[in-house]
Design brief:
The structure holds two protein chains of two kinds.
Chain A lengths: L4 H4 L13 H19 L5 H24 L3 H6 L6 H19 L2 E3 H23 L5 H23 L2 H19 L3 H24 L2
Helix pairs in contact in A: 3-5, 3-9, 6-7, 7-8, 7-9, 8-9
Chain B lengths: L11 H10 L2 E5 H7 L4 H13 L3 E8 L2 E8 L1 H22 L1
Antiparallel strand pairs in B: 1-3, 2-3
The chains are: A mainly alpha, B alpha+beta.
Chain lengths: 209, 97
């Protein structure tokens, strides 16, 4: 009788999915995973802006470095006009945003993150440029590099995009070095490298998707 | 212990829609049509049900002079989705035990 007790005894089981079968549940999980993969593989428009602005700041910094360090007269004469590339960058950004607004039919979650962090950084740049025109450049330039690095680090960390996270950390390190070595040529080279690692390279990687 | 899955989410097309929206700020109707298995009529019907349950918000506007329908998930929808996923994982893990 003891051996046959289960034959005669109702043993309640944790039949928690008596109305659902395993295949049904796995199909639901599969549906959720497919949606995640679909969105994850979509191109983030932030890549265009990172490439554009990273490239512009890289070229601008490198140009100023070359003009100062190499002392090429032709370049030195153009230094006062080099800032023109920034309004040009603004125009290209505006035109691109208008073009994508016409055709895009969805917005990724992190687009808002990139928009607010980088436009906030840009506003910071403008405020520093406008209200510190008489300040020593060797004091201001590390702040630009730091802001750039922070923006990349924060966006990379929140969106889990490692190239931005690593590039941002590298750029922050460059900002620290720039503060320790207050020589304009060194700082310009660090600014160029900072823009390369924190914006241009992550932007190009993002665009490859 | 009996776990009852949210019947609103335990339907293939509605789950596809919510699974997409959970990763997006917003999506237009056409995007949902391109990336789910539903027809226009069926998607409209499911969106209405999700909206009635306040899992999503629907906004109707114009773009380039064409009417567009934009959908976004609400906080209630996110919470419902997270509970749904948690419930399924619990059921599957209990099944493995």
């Amino acid at each position: 009788m003891v051996n046959n007790i289960n034959q005669f005894t109702f043993v309640p089981t944790l039949n928690i999915h008596m109305n659902y079968n395993k295949i049904e549940l796995e199909k639901s999980i599969s549906t959720i995973e497919n949606a995640f993969k679909l969105v994850k593989n979509e191109k983030n428009d932030a890549g265009y802006y990172l490439t554009l602005w990273g490239g512009l700041i890289f070229l601008y910094s490198l140009f100023l470095f070359a003009a100062l360090a190499l002392k090429i007269t032709a370049l030195s004469n153009m230094v006062n006009y080099a800032w023109v590339i920034f309004p040009l960058g603004g125009l290209l950004s505006f035109l691109h945003s208008r073009k994508t607004a016409k055709t895009e039919n969805h917005k990724l979650l992190f687009e808002r993150l990139y928009l607010y962090v980088w436009s906030g950084t840009g506003i910071g740049f403008i405020i520093i440029s406008v209200f510190n025109q008489n300040a020593d450049s060797t004091l201001i330039l590390p702040i630009y590099i730091l802001l750039f690095g922070l923006a990349s680090f924060i966006t990379g960390g929140i969106s889990n995009f490692k190239p931005s996270l690593i590039g941002g950390a590298i750029c922050i390190a460059f900002a620290a070095i720039a503060m320790l070595y207050p020589f304009l040529e060194t700082q310009l080279l660090l600014a160029a490298c900072g823009a390369l690692f924190s914006a241009l390279i992550p932007g190009l990687i993002m665009n490859r998707k | 212990m009996f776990i009852k899955l949210d019947p609103l989410l335990h339907a293939q097309l509605r789950l596809e829609i919510i699974s997409l929206l959970i990763h997006l700020q917003q999506a237009e109707f056409n995007y949902l049509k391109e990336n789910t298995s539903g027809t226009s009529g069926n998607i409209s019907l499911q969106l209405r049900k999700l909206e009635q349950a306040k899992y999503i918000e629907i906004d109707k506007s114009f773009k380039n002079n064409y009417p567009i329908t934009t959908v976004s998930i609400t906080a209630k929808g996110i919470a419902a989705f997270e509970k749904y996923v948690s419930d399924i994982k619990q059921m599957l893990s209990n099944d493995i035990k």
